[in-house]
Design brief:
Distance between the termini: 20 Å
Number of domains: 2
Catalytic activity: Hydrolysis of terminal non-reducing N-acetyl-D-hexosamine residues in N-acetyl-beta-D-hexosaminides
CATH topology of the largest domain: TIM Barrel
Strand order of the largest sheet: 3-11-7-8-6-5
Structural class: alpha/beta
GO molecular function: beta-N-acetylglucosaminidase activity
EC number: 3.2.1.52
Keywords: Glycoprotein, Glycosidase, Hydrolase, Signal
Pfam family, one: Glycohydro_20b2
Radius of gyration: 27 Å
Length: about 500
């Protein structure tokens, strides 16, 4: 599954709208419904809701909850939250499970403080690693907080004892059993995120059984379980479907959202909110476009000059500790953090220190004007592929990236190269004439490929000498003319953001 690079063009306001939209979906999936800001003295609402199967515009019949007046309602009419839980084959589950989905049309009330994790074990009688045990308990704690927040939020609107109504929900408990097959604690492109979820109700006990290959599947199951619950206004309690049998696995192994923190700096709490919102919708990859020509906001201990020259300010920097915390927060929420180090274009601010420290020009055309001649969008800047000192700097960056993120993929950017930038830099054109005998497109492509080979070798060295799949954006390098000539399909993944027709 591919996310679109045009997301890097989002303005600050557009991204806020985007996150708000995700928040709206997550709120929908978690059923944080209130029927209006009524208080405990407000009269009963005159409306009830029925599950309708009428065709919309004479097209496909889509189950939906239809509002009817109490005086005209049938015996099947319910409160809105109950209707939404029981209307349709997949209830309110989002995304819709890909496999077997059997859901009861009956709900039962329960108390969130009577929910406990009764069983946690490996299927082959092994022992959980400490790390996996921590991850599972974090996910379970997050699930319980969701339940409590669902109640407290509603009771804050209406009072703890809505119009004096009480039920026996406090006597019904929920016990959850989680059974895993492995101790896998790292999310990769090949991780099995499938799970099965069964809910059975026997008098005053709701039994939940979750089976998954690993923590990540179990976390998805808890997310689904939370979507099977909702607050019941009339009972002043939570309710859950009394029977469910679900098997689910992702349709795509890569389900990502991209955030650009170079053009616009986002605080760590903002990034955490985005990751948490992604987890509500079972998205698994936070594609972090950290750096670009605009700024270099990630602090590299081995090359501190990059942020000294490249950050918007000393408060607009991600420290190594913060980056590791973000990566861990992602893991806890079933989201891997995939860093992108865009190169050799999209590099400008931060690279100006080379000449002052005797390293030569590490980047060329930085902030050069008129920008239309030297880059596809301002500000301009491209790495200098013939400067051998550049590769020593890249090696230090790569090593810290692997330490901070422990990635299973490495996104190396690689698009929007402006040949005129290189072709108007004397040291580069002299090198081209000396080594390739010219400076036309053919020679430019060979030099670009030489950069890819050298930088890729440094990436593998930073990964303890092991090859790792490299992701590249679509570009001239990935066109039909050059793709098979320069790129090994076993080593590269092409992420499409342009037309696929070329």
């Amino acid at each position: 599954m591919v996310d679109n690079k045009m997301m890097t063009r989002f303005s600050f306001n557009n991204l806020l709208i985007f996150i708000a939209a995700f928040g709206a979906v997550s709120a929908w999936t978690r059923n944080y419904r209130n029927g209006g800001h009524s208080n405990q003295n407000a009269p009963d609402n005159v409306w009830k809701w029925e599950c309708s199967h009428e065709a919309i515009r004479n097209l496909t019949v889509i189950p939906r909850c239809k509002k009817v007046h109490r005086s005209e309602a049938s015996s099947k009419a319910t409160e809105l939250s109950t209707c939404k839980l029981t209307c349709g084959e997949a209830s309110m589950l989002f995304p819709k499970p890909s496999g077997k989905t059997k859901l009861s049309k009956k709900v039962v009330p329960f108390a969130p403080y009577r929910v406990k994790l009764s069983t946690l074990k490996l299927s082959k009688n092994g022992k959980f690693t400490r790390r996996v045990n921590q991850l599972i308990r974090f996910a379970f704690g997050s699930f319980k907080r969701t339940l409590h927040q669902g109640v407290y939020r509603q009771q804050a609107y209406r009072g703890w004892n809505l119009q004096g109504r009480t039920i026996e929900s406090s006597k019904r408990s929920m016990e959850i059993s989680i059974i895993l097959e492995t101790n896998a604690e790292k999310l990769t492109l090949y991780t099995d995120e499938s799970y099965s979820l069964k809910v059975n109700t026997n008098n005053r006990l709701i039994s939940v059984t979750i089976k998954a290959n690993n923590f990540f599947g179990a976390r998805h199951a808890l997310e689904t379980l939370s979507q099977l619950t909702a607050y019941h206004q009339g009972h002043n309690s939570l309710q859950i479907i009394d029977y469910a049998d679900i098997y689910d696995k992702p349709a795509y192994p890569y389900r990502g959202v991209l955030l650009d923190t170079s053009r616009n700096f986002y605080s760590v709490p903002s990034i955490r909110r985005l990751i948490k919102t992604m987890s509500y919708n079972k998205l698994n990859t936070f594609h972090w476009h950290i750096t670009d020509t605009h700024s270099f906001p990630i602090f590299i201990k081995a090359v501190p000059q990059l942020t000294q020259y490249g950050a918007y300010s000393n408060t607009r920097v991600y420290t190594p500790r913060q980056v590791k915390q973000i990566a861990e927060y992602g893991r806890q929420h079933g989201v891997r953090v995939l860093p992108e180090f865009d190169q050799p274009a999209h590099t400008g601010e931060g690279w100006q220190f080379g000449e002052k420290e005797g390293l030569g020009k590490l980047a060329v055309c930085v902030n050069k004007e008129p920008w239309q001649k030297f880059c596809l969008e301002p500000p301009c800047g491209q790495l200098n592929p013939i400067n051998q000192n550049l590769y020593h700097i890249l090696s230090k960056i790569y090593k810290e990236y692997f330490d901070l993120f422990d990635p299973d993929l490495f996104h190396a950017g690689g698009d929007e190269i402006n040949f005129n930038c290189w072709n108007t830099t004397k040291e580069i054109t002299d090198w081209l004439h000396t080594n390739y005998g010219g400076r036309n497109e053919e020679e430019m492509m060979r030099m670009w490929n030489l950069f890819l080979e050298k930088s890729s070798k440094k990436i593998y060295e930073a990964n303890d000498g092991k090859e790792i799949p490299l992701i590249l954006w679509t570009s001239k390098m990935t066109s039909i003319k050059y793709l098979n000539r320069f790129l090994n399909p076993k080593q590269h993944i092409i992420q499409i953001w342009t037309s696929t027709k070329k």
